[in-house]
Amino acid sequence: MSLVDIGVLSKTAGIPVSTLRYYEEVGLIQSVSRIGLRRQYHEDALVQLSLISLGKAAGFSLDEIRGMFDKERRPNLPRPTLHQRADELDAQILRLMTLSKLLRHVAECPAPSHMACTRFRKLLRVNSPGIAAG
What we know:
The protein has helices at 6-13, 17-25, 45-57, 62-66, 79-108, 118-127; strands spanning 3-5, 33-35, 38-42. Strands 1-3-2 form a 3-stranded antiparallel β-sheet. It is built from 6 helices and 3 strands. The chain folds into 2 domains: 3-77, Multidrug-efflux Transporter Regulator, Chain: A, Domain 2 (Orthogonal Bundle), CATH 1.10.1660.10; 80-127. The chain has 134 residues and is mostly helical. InterPro entries: DNA-bd_dom_put_sf, MerR-type_HTH_dom, MerR_fam.
């Protein structure tokens, strides 16, 4: 397996060198050698970085992501955890879609005042049950 210089890895992955160094410091990736002061990585570090990026996009912390790699830094993805996060994302999507509908209604509502709109007031109560909408 060929080695990749930290600068090449940074450019290929689109991740700053400082971030690669940090990921190494916290145990997410590992350099395998150095040429002078420049760190060298196995080619599979690109796969690891893609998985890290995917995990971050899904809302996992770096600690959680680190736990998804075994000692050789191969992915060991816990399916129940992934299902749970997918469920959380589905719930977040539903909340955001409801918010989007509320904002569209507010923007397009023909009522003279938003507070005079019964649908808007109902949406306020549903979206913020702890706040009295009058």
